[in-house]
Design goal:
Elements: E1 2-8, H1 13-22, E2 26-32, E3 37-43, H2 48-61, E4 65-72
Antiparallel strand pairs: 1-3, 1-4, 2-3
């Protein structure tokens, strides 16, 4: 499980939402507040290489990305990050 944070220019936000939400790796996609348009995706992949490929694909195919970063989930201390 990994989390990807994406910040886009406002004019590219709708396209970013569509591309990211269509990806098989994305389990949950949320919009958060910030100076620009922010998306946080909770994702799953089989391994780190596929996680890296996913992040690189989003970076290459979505226009207007100001920043993108991914974090591997090490442990869930409380609750669940994946809705069933």
């Amino acid at each position: 499980t990994f989390i990807v944070n994406v910040e886009t220019n406002p004019e590219h936000f709708d396209n970013a939402k569509q591309v990211i939400s269509a990806a098989d790796e994305v389990v949950t996609l949320i919009q958060t507040t910030g100076r620009n348009s922010h998306l946080t995706a909770i994702c799953v992949s089989e391994d780190v290489k596929k996680m890296r490929d996913f992040v690189n694909h989003i970076y290459r195919t979505v226009d207007g990305i100001l920043s993108i970063n991914a974090h591997t989930v090490l442990d869930v201390i409380k609750g669940s990050i994946i809705l069933e």
